[in-house]
Amino acid sequence: MRIGVVTRGQVQDLDWAQRLGFRSMEWMGFHDGPAGPNHADWKRFAEKFAAEAKARDIRISAIGALYQNPLDPKQTEFARAVFRRAIEVAAHIGVKTVAGFAGAVIQTELDERGGHVVYKPFENYLPQVLAFWEPLAKLAADQGVRVAFENCPQGAYHLPLMNYNMLGQPAMWERLFNATRCENLGIEWDASHLICQFIDPVANVHKFGRKIFHVHAKDAYINRPLLEVYGLCHPGVAEHRFPGLGQANWAEIIHALLRAGYDSDLNIEGRHDPVFRDHEPNEGTPLAARKLEEAGLLIAKRVLAQYSPSPAE
């Protein structure tokens, strides 16, 4: 189990990760990168990027293919092409897991006043979810690749309210796994989204551990006094933080993951902590310029490294 970071698939990002002492990374931004579906000559880039990572002793633990709503009809064909290509790339360079959002079918109707009312009874649309994902899962299984769904609800980042990702709710994980025979469908697990729903991350790992294929290491904090005065939807009641600065018990989480047979890495997801976040107007700001984020990442790395086995592995 290595401690890593979530970052884009660029050589300069590998240099940045290596400088900070990380030995794993999740390749994000895949859908619009040089190996994505819009590029026929993807093998040359994928092979070069994998070689550059190996030269720096950085393991690519997963390919973050697409974090949008693949079940939105306007995106479905593109999403299918992205995941097919990501599976192909993963198999070619020896990456175990392809990740993204499962998405959701969102039904919108007009109420009697002419306004839009959005209904999200996710369980009613499980057949459509399976119709999209099972063929991709079977394609992935044939090539020795797993598909992992991140459990972010995709509401406002500090709230547990569901938006377009039906697998933000653990109850829907259960329904999905019970409805499919595709054993290579699982979860890209993130403790922060559980804490913001008042779910115990350790109990969640004990229940779903064998289906956790990849981990985003992110923490969260519930401000109980503020909650009791203003309620859950007030800003600051629930906030995401770096591991070690929130309320997750990382010793118990890592112990539970190992007990469940978890075979991948812990990749820290930055940019969410309200203190250790550089308030830049453009996400394109070079990683090396994000000094507050770097400080948070290094704190998180020290916290996680205490409990992860074989740091020199």
Account of the 3D structure:
- There is one protein chain.
- This protein has helices at 11-19, 42-55, 76-93, 126-142, 170-179, 191-195, 201-208, 224-230, 250-259, 291-305, and strands spanning 3-8, 24-28, 59-66, 97-100, 107-110, 116-119, 146-150, 185-190, 212-217, 219-222, 238-241, 266-268.
- It has one domain (3-305): TIM Barrel, CATH 3.20.20.150.
- The chain is built from ten helices and twelve strands.
- Helix 2 (42-55) links the parallel strand 2 and strand 3.
- The longest helix has 18 residues, at 76-93.
- With 313 residues, the protein is of the alpha/beta class.
- The mean pLDDT is 91.
- The termini are close together.
- Helix 3 (76-93) runs parallel beside helix 4 (126-142) and helix 7 (201-208) runs parallel beside helix 9.
- Helices cover 36% and strands 19% of the residues.
- An eight-stranded parallel β-barrel has the order 1-2-3-4-7-8-9-12, surrounded by five helices. Strands 5-6 form a two-stranded antiparallel sheet. A two-stranded antiparallel ribbon has the order 10-11.
Topology at a glance:
Blueprint lengths: L2 E6 L2 H9 L4 E5 L13 H14 L3 E8 L9 H18 L3 E4 L6 E4 L5 E4 L6 H17 L3 E5 L19 H10 L5 E6 H5 L5 H8 L3 E6 L1 E4 L1 H7 L7 E4 L8 H10 L6 E3 L22 H15 L8
Parallel strand pairs: 1-2, 1-12, 2-3, 3-4, 4-7, 7-8, 8-9, 9-12
Antiparallel strand pairs: 5-6, 10-11
Helix pairs in contact: 3-4, 7-9
